[in-house]
Amino acid sequence: MEIRSEGGGGCVQVKCDNKVPPAQVIPRTRLQVWFIRVCSSILIWTCLVQLMAVGELWEQPRRVSNLTNVLIREPARPLVVARNYISNGFLKVSCNGGLNQMRAAICDMVAVARLLNLTLVVPELDKTSFWADPSNFDDIFDVKHFIDSLRDEVRIVRRLPKRFNRKYGYQPLQMPPVSWSNEEYYLQKVLPLFSKYKVMHFNRTDTRLANNGISLDLQKLRCRVNFQALKFTPEIEALGYKLVQILQSKGPFVALHLRYEMDMLAFSGCTHGCTQEEAEELKRLRYAFPWWREKEIVSEEKRLQGLCPLTPEEATLVLQALGFDKDMQIYIASGEIYGSQRRLAALRTAFPRFAKKEMLLEPEELQQFQNHSSQMAALDFMVSVASNVFIPTYDGNMARLVEGHRRYLGFKKTIKLDRRKLIELVDLHHNGTLDWDEFSFSVRIAHGKRMGQPTRRLVMVDKPKEEDYFYSNPQECLCGGTSCDDLLGSGNISTIQ
Question: What pTM value is reported for the model?
Answer without folding.
Answer: 0.82
